[in-house]
Amino acid sequence: MVFALIAVFAVAGLSLLAFGEDGVDPGAFLLAGLIILALFAQYLLIPLLFRHADRSVPLIINMLAVTGLVLQYRLEPENAFRQLVWLAAGLVAMVLVIWFVSGRDGLEAGSWLYMGAGLGLLGLSLVYGTVVGGARSWIRFEDFSIQPSEFAKVTLCFALASVLREKRRFAGYLPLFLFVIASVALLVYQKDLGAAALYYITFLGILTVATSNGWWTAAGALGAAAGGLAAYRFFGHVRLRVSVWLNPWIVPDTGGYQIIQGLMAIASGGWFGLGLGQGMPGRIPAAGNDYIFAVICEEMGMAAGIMIIAFYLILAVRGVLIARAARDSFRSLLAMGATLMIAAQSFIIIGGVLKLIPLTGITLPLVSYGGSSMLGTLMLCGILQAVAHRSGLERREAGEPDADGEAEPEDENGGEEDDA
Amino acid sequence: MKEIRRNMTLLLVLIALAFAGLAAYLVWTVRDHGEAWRSSAYNPRLYRQRTMVEAGDILDRNGTALAVSDGAGNRVYPQGTRAVCHAVGDPWGYSPAGAETVFGPLLLGLDETEGEKFLRLLRGGAPQGLDVTLTVDLELQRAATGALDGRRGAAVVMDYTTGEILCMVSSPGFDPARAAESAGEAGDEAAPLVNRALQGRYAPGSIFKLVTAAAALEAGWDPLTVIACTGGLDVAGGAIACGGGSGHGRIDMYEAFARSCNTYFGTLGVELGAEALRAGAERLGFNRDFDFDGVRLSSSAFTLEEGDGEGDIARAAIGQHEDLVTPLHMAMLAGAVANGGVMVKPGLLLAAGGRNRLRVEAYGQVMSPGTADVLAEMMARCVAGGTGAAAALPGVTVAGKTGTAQVSDGGEGESHAWFIGYIADGDHPLCVAVVMERAGSGGATAAPAAAVILGKALELGY
Question: What is the pTM for the complete model shown?
Answer without folding.
Answer: 0.72
